[in-house]
Amino acid sequence: MKKIPYKTPKYEQIRLLLRREISSGYRVGDLFPTQRELMKRFNASYATIGRVLRELKAENIIHTHVGRGIFIDNLPAVRSFKPVKIAVFISHEPAASDLNIFGLFQKGLLNAQEKYSCEINFFEITDNIEAMTACVRKNNADGVLFLEDKMLSFIESVKKTGIPYTVVHPYLTKHDFCVDIDDAVGIYAAIQAMACRGAKRIALVGSDLGSGHNKIKADAFCTGLTIAGLEFDSSLVCEFHKHDDMIARMEKLRSFFLSPGRADGLFLIGLEHLEMTESLLKHENIRIPEDMLITVFGHFGYAQKAGFPLGTIIVPYEEAAEKGAEMLVNNCNSKKKETDIKLLKTTFIWRGKK
Length: 354
What we know:
There is one protein chain. This protein is an alpha/beta fold and about 350 residues long. The protein folds into three domains: about 5-80, Winged helix-like DNA-binding domain superfamily/Winged helix DNA-binding domain (Arc Repressor Mutant, subunit A), CATH 1.10.10; about 85-180 and about 320-345, Rossmann fold; about 185-315, Rossmann fold, CATH 3.40.50.2300. The protein has eleven helices and 16 strands. It has helices at about 10-25, 35-40, 45-60, 100-115, 130-140, 150-160, 185-195, 210-225, 245-260, 275-285, 315-330; strands at about 1-5, 30, 60-65, 70, 85-90, 120-125, 145, 165-170, 175-180, 200-205, 235-240, 265-270, 295, 310-315, 340-345, 345-350. It has a seven-stranded mixed sheet with strand order 1-6-5-7-8-9-15, with helices on both faces. It has a six-stranded mixed sheet with strand order 11-10-12-13-14-16, sandwiched between helices. A three-stranded antiparallel sheet has the order 2-4-3. β3 and β4 (about 70) form a beta hairpin. α4 crosses α11 (about 315-330) and α5 packs across α6.
């Protein structure tokens, strides 16, 4: 198990303390200390106390009468005083990195931990659903956040216990509480942009295109071709499989580039294929972008460092994780809804000279 320590920012410490004091020592309508009085008491800056007061106003706890002062509107619920403990189950040790999707998810969770009153705890995924559900109870987690929905049986188990949950970036089914990402929007924009720059035969390269998120992306690629007025050609698909080692992948890609009717555009699903593709194109004297326009799904890792013009699809992984944590905190703090679904969209940009 890996736990990220909860570090409460100063403004949040002051806000929580004032909420406790309001709940126990004030009545609705009572006069509240001024901003300058609070600055002096907590030895805090104007901006810090200003943020505290704005958040208390946003929660309808206080209101301001110009020329008269600050007054109590409502007494806060005790439940929201302590940080919400969120359990996140992962298959490997978390690593703060911009080089992979999980690293971006983790950055979003860390952002949420700074912005909202929550504590993120990581637990290891096992094959024992009962044990994982018991782990949630044993560690007194207030809610569970799922990164994708590969563990449908575990999600159902958590739902049956009544523990609040949120799913980030699902792809297997719909969920009542989730933050979804629309992969298709960015893919449509990418295909259209490549077509506008003269690409007529756009090839698709990726792994296991018939399952998971990659199937969704492959379907969006086909639709994108239709929207751009281009035809899908099965001979322009290069698919890798899990059992393919690096040598096998290199051979598949080399054969693909040397086949008749070569593509003039390349859409890569998976950043892991980008460096290999660049190497092979150089070996075959195929110039980028004069002979081959390239777009990759993902705007992190090598996609940000490549020394050639490249189309990239920006996926809001970090924002999705942060919003998922925010949604879960609100749900745990008795702001419950029957359903809460947010949709984020992918976008497309060109890197380098076009």
